[in-house]
Specification:
By secondary structure, the chain is an alpha+beta fold. The chain has one domain: Up-down Bundle (Outer membrane efflux proteins (OEP)). It contains 10 helices and 4 strands. The chain has a 4-stranded antiparallel beta sheet.
Length: 468
């Protein structure tokens, strides 16, 4: 009797796995990025936000990683997926349990059939059993389900890394935008004060007949233009502060400042090749793990065509006296094996197989789409940063020329050579040019942040260490 049992126990060691083993799809990847510059540096795996050289920004990012609710949700999802993996693997091992019972009962002595002589009435009964059951994973169904659960857990982990990647980039982008708005507010206030001085001067000169009312009103339009820009910028500052506060896991409130936008150091452009994105981008790694899980589900579904083999056993004692429960005569035991399998299921199993095969096709296309989207993200970020740098250089030349134009126009007006409308035109060009220059500078910083986000990198591991 023991030989069949030993044979059954040895089956899992030689059992097969139904369904295809996972192989990464062969994809065509570009040899290099089109817009990567020659001065790119190997910085993708470093904590790149330190390159801004602003301790306040470093602290904000650390606070965000530690307090952001989405990071905590993602971490909880990983814990949940890990528990699902443990649950999926559990059937690979025998399930051992116990059962104990005790009863006291009295049978009727006035029934149609009298009780046998010497039959105890009332009567006690006690029983205690230890049992075990085990489903033999002959066709690999449980192992395929475990493989799928493991892939889903890894996908959850990559999702958490993706949340951290987006969070760090969002905090850095929000901070440079905030410092840019602060500089724009400073420019608007300085310009407003300068225009206010001109208005006061022209009003005084108008009282003595030295300037016309038109000149006064022209100066006043400049002043009000700057005055109208200030509350708009202040509203943008408050909204940006509130957005950063939410990223930090706090209620909306003020955000501390460090270096000005002019004093911030511009991070270097990270170097990389397209094929590296397959290993660095969390969203690509997550998509691949989803594909692994979908591939494993095929084997689990196909295994349903074949019989399920289970072993059960029990050992214990049964007696009508509690003291004799563990004596030799009270010993009871049993063992059994069972085989169950489908004969006719109305197409349910084949439909399930087709379902998981279709899910695998969808997961594969999702994986391909994630890769192509990643390539596009990097190319977009690189070209945007390159063109913003060119645009900023041109804008700086424009501001320089506008300042000189305004200075010369003011000198000619003071000398009585040109009317004030010439000064008005020059200064009307200078004010928005200065605001645009600051805006382009903060956009250039944000574009550099977008490159690091698009390329992924080992820096995510550095950042996620602060969230544990």
């Amino acid at each position: 009797m023991r030989r069949p049992i030993v044979a059954l126990l040895a089956v899992p060691l030689a059992g097969c796995l139904m369904g295809p083993d996972y192989r990464r799809p062969v994809l065509e990847t570009p040899a290099a990025f089109r817009y990567e510059t020659a001065d790119a540096q190997e910085t993708a795996n470093t904590a790149w936000w330190h390159q801004f050289q602003d301790p306040v920004l470093d602290e904000l990012i650390a606070d965000a990683i530690a307090g952001n609710p989405n990071v905590k949700i993602a971490a909880a999802n990983v814990e949940q997926a890990a528990a699902v993996l443990t649950q999926a693997r559990a059937p690979l091992y025998p399930t051992v349990g116990y059962d104990a019972s005790g009863a006291r009962e009295r049978a009727s002595e006035a029934g149609a059939v009298p009780l046998p002589a010497g039959f105890p009435n009332p009567r006690d009964s006690y029983q205690i059993l230890a049992g075990a059951s085990w489903e033999i994973d002959l066709w690999g169904r449980i192992r395929r389900l475990s493989e799928a659960a493991r892939a889903q857990m890894l996908a959850s982990e990559e999702a958490r890394r993706g949340v951290i990647l987006s969070l760090v980039a969002s905090v850095a982008s929000g901070y440079v935008q905030l410092r840019g708005l602060d500089e724009q507010l400073s420019i608007a206030r300085r310009t407003k004060e300068a225009y206010a001085a001109s208005v006061r001067l022209f009003e005084l000169q108008f009282q003595y007949g030295l300037k016309s009312g038109m000149t006064v009103e022209q100066a006043r339009t400049q002043y009000e233009t700057a005055a109208a820009a200030i509350p708009q910028i202040e509203a943008q500052i408050a909204q940006t502060e509130h957005a950063i506060s939410i990223l930090l896991g706090r209620n909306p409130g003020p955000i501390p400042r460090g270096k000005s936008i002019e004093a911030l150091a511009l991070p270097a452009i990270p170097a990389g090749v397209p094929s590296e994105l397959l290993e660095r981008r969390p969203d690509i790694r997550q998509a691949e793990q989803n594909l692994v899980a979908a591939n494993a589900q095929i084997g689990a579904a196909k295994a349903l065509y074949f019989p399920t083999i289970s072993l059960t056993g029990a050992f214990g004692g049964a007696s009508n006296q509690l003291g004799n429960l563990f004596q030799g005569p009270a010993r009871v035991w049993s063992y059994a094996g069972s085989i169950t399998g489908p004969i006719f299921a109305g197409g349910a199993i084949s439909a399930q197989v087709r379902q998981v095969e279709a899910a695998r096709k969808a997961a594969e296309q999702g994986y391909v789409a994630a890769i192509q989207s990643a390539f596009a993200d990097v190319e977009d970020a690189l070209v945007k940063r390159e063109k913003l740098a060119e645009q900023l250089e041109a804008q700086e030349r424009l501001v320089k020329a506008s300042r000189e134009y305004a200075r010369l126009a003011r000198l000619q007006f003071d000398g009585g050579v040109t009317p004030y409308v010439t000064v008005l035109q020059a200064e009307q060009q200078l004010f928005p040019a200065e605001l645009n220059q600051v805006g382009l500078r903060s956009s250039l910083f944000a574009a550099t942040v977008a490159i690091y986000k698009a390329m992924g990198g080992g820096w995510v591991a550095v950042a996620e260490g602060q969230s544990r």
